[in-house]
Specification:
Blueprint (H helix, E strand, L loop, with lengths): L6 E3 L1 E2 L2 E2 L15 E5 L4 H12 L4 E3 L11 H11 L3 E4 L6 H7 L1 H10 L6
Parallel strand pairs: 1-6, 4-5, 4-6
Antiparallel strand pairs: 2-3
């Protein structure tokens, strides 16, 4: 499976809404899911809810192994996870103090966490 064939699902409230007319729910319990940001505040909650709904194949790319600002790391994450669904929640955060001390890094890194392969 290549990157272009992976469906990207955006989290909206507590449902996974698919593009198209009307509203549809997808059964994720048998899907291989890549949850970026899955170790963060929101991502940990989403991972918990996915597990509660029966999802067993959740891949959470850790920052120390996958730098999601780099295309080659993203491609490796796709190969390693064999993802059918991506829930993209990764972001560089740090609170008010960190934003004041390093405004440029937050400004640069967050947009690059969604490069062309996504």
């Amino acid at each position: 499976m290549d990157i272009d064939s992976v469906r990207v699902i955006f989290v909206q409230f507590q449902y996974f809404q698919l593009p198209g007319p009307g509203f549809a729910l997808m059964d994720l319990s048998k899907k291989r899911i890549m949850l970026t940001g899955g170790a963060g505040f929101l991502g940990a909650f989403v991972a918990q809810k996915l597990k509660a709904r029966g999802c067993k194949h959740i891949f959470i790319p850790k920052e120390q192994h996958y730098d999601l600002t780099k295309a080659e790391a993203i491609e490796r994450a796709f190969k390693d996870s064999k993802a059918e669904v991506v829930i993209h929640l990764a972001a560089k955060v740090g609170g008010i103090g960190a934003n004041r001390e390093n405004p440029g890094s937050f400004f640069y890194d967050n947009p690059t966490l969604t490069p062309v392969p996504f």
